[in-house]
Amino acid sequence: MQGASAHRTHQSLRTMGTLARPRVILLTYLLAAMELTCLFMQFSILPYLSRRLGLDSVAYGYLQTTFGVLQLLGGPVFGRFADQRGARAALSLSFLAASVFYLLLAAACSPALPGVLLLFASRLPSPFMHTLPAAQMIITDLTGPEERPAALGRLGLCFGVGIILGSLLGGTLSTSCGIHCPAIAAFMANLLGAVISFTCIPAKTKEASVDAQATQPGLPKASVFDLKAITRLLLLPSVLPVFLVKVASGFPSGLFMVMFSIISMDFFQLEASQAGYLMSFFGILQMVTQGLVIGRLSRHFSEEALLRASVLVFIMVGLGMVLMSNILHFCFLMPGLVFSLCSLNVVTDSMLTKAVSATDTGGLLYRNFGVPIFGHVQLAVNFLIFLFLWRKPMSQKGDKAK
């Protein structure tokens, strides 16, 4: 049975052919960019919709926390589902979950419906909204070891495209057509993405040898919800330190980015279109840093050196955020923030599938202490992480997740 299944998988990959693989990879890039564009479209309208529904900054923080916590909890389960059902099923599931997400968000914009309830209910599909990890899985399966780093690095460019287009389209559509228009457009785009991914992505993208190793004879088939297997992988000595550094170091920036839409509206006094322009600038910086800076630095410096550098820049950015008082100051801080975020993700993403920095207290911090509190947290946490990295190397030979 297993030999026949492996043979069918090998035949499927051979049928795909060498000419079809670049097309599948290009289609994966386009689908990832489209989903990220929709995601940042809703980010651009969410604070204004929340304010219209009567939510304050604390309630908005809880709303974003719900999204982050559900994605964090759903990430390992989604990864197990992708390993067992294939990348096509995972990508299709992600687009279908996003469709439900945006449909509920569009319904929350209607004055005739209970907007606050629907707004929080729209967060429920988020455990299955992991398009980027699914795209990473497809590209990893369809590329060789030599071309894989460059192919995965292009997903960072897709992220930048999503920030630029999503921020511009979200602000423009909400201003010209109403606040519900971006949510409806995102709903239709994700339905289209589900159809395209199910019909155009190969059912099996892993090599036959990989599939044969995944299910060994005599062992029971692992469940998608096998928490013991997930915990075993997470607690490997080569994985746990990187996971902790990724979450702890990214936590302060996660606090700030979760509340950034409210901060841009309250602290910086920006309109929806102006906030879109600011996020587009962020996206351009991210594309330049991901596409030009990080790649060149990685050829000259080790991963440990880049990780220490990102944490050190995080410390300086945190100090600058403590003293920040206007939008111009933040624009000067953005290159350092983007560099640290990109470096942190590039170094750790090779070991971790998805880690979302969720915040339980972002709204309370912003309301009680103001914007400088994010700088204090950034400075303190990353200073401790920097000391940890300086004393304890990340790489441990011989510890590999098989």
From TrEMBL:
<keyword id="KW-0812">Transmembrane</keyword>
<keyword id="KW-0813">Transport</keyword>
<dbReference type="InterPro" id="IPR001958">
    <property type="entry name" value="Tet-R_TetA/multi-R_MdtG-like"/>
</dbReference>
<feature type="transmembrane region" description="Helical">
    <location>
        <begin position="61"/>
        <end position="81"/>
    </location>
</feature>
<feature type="transmembrane region" description="Helical">
    <location>
        <begin position="275"/>
        <end position="293"/>
    </location>
</feature>
<dbReference type="InterPro" id="IPR036259">
    <property type="entry name" value="MFS_trans_sf"/>
</dbReference>
<feature type="domain" description="Major facilitator superfamily (MFS) profile">
    <location>
        <begin position="21"/>
        <end position="402"/>
    </location>
</feature>
<dbReference type="InterPro" id="IPR011701">
    <property type="entry name" value="MFS"/>
</dbReference>
<protein>
    <recommendedName>
        <fullName>Solute carrier family 22 member 18</fullName>
    </recommendedName>
</protein>
<comment type="function">
    <text>May act as a transporter of organic cations based on a proton efflux antiport mechanism. May play a role in the transport of chloroquine and quinidine-related compounds in kidney. Plays a role in the regulation of lipid metabolism.</text>
</comment>
<keyword id="KW-1003">Cell membrane</keyword>
<feature type="transmembrane region" description="Helical">
    <location>
        <begin position="24"/>
        <end position="49"/>
    </location>
</feature>
<feature type="transmembrane region" description="Helical">
    <location>
        <begin position="151"/>
        <end position="171"/>
    </location>
</feature>
<dbReference type="InterPro" id="IPR020846">
    <property type="entry name" value="MFS_dom"/>
</dbReference>
<keyword id="KW-0472">Membrane</keyword>
<dbReference type="GO" id="GO:0015293">
    <property type="term" value="F:symporter activity"/>
</dbReference>
<feature type="transmembrane region" description="Helical">
    <location>
        <begin position="183"/>
        <end position="204"/>
    </location>
</feature>
<feature type="transmembrane region" description="Helical">
    <location>
        <begin position="243"/>
        <end position="263"/>
    </location>
</feature>
<feature type="transmembrane region" description="Helical">
    <location>
        <begin position="305"/>
        <end position="323"/>
    </location>
</feature>
<dbReference type="GO" id="GO:0016324">
    <property type="term" value="C:apical plasma membrane"/>
</dbReference>
<dbReference type="GO" id="GO:0005635">
    <property type="term" value="C:nuclear envelope"/>
</dbReference>
<comment type="similarity">
    <text>Belongs to the major facilitator (TC 2.A.1) superfamily. Organic cation transporter (TC 2.A.1.19) family.</text>
</comment>
<feature type="transmembrane region" description="Helical">
    <location>
        <begin position="368"/>
        <end position="390"/>
    </location>
</feature>
<dbReference type="Pfam" id="PF07690">
    <property type="entry name" value="MFS_1"/>
</dbReference>
<feature type="transmembrane region" description="Helical">
    <location>
        <begin position="330"/>
        <end position="348"/>
    </location>
</feature>
<feature type="transmembrane region" description="Helical">
    <location>
        <begin position="93"/>
        <end position="121"/>
    </location>
</feature>
<keyword id="KW-1133">Transmembrane helix</keyword>
<keyword id="KW-0769">Symport</keyword>
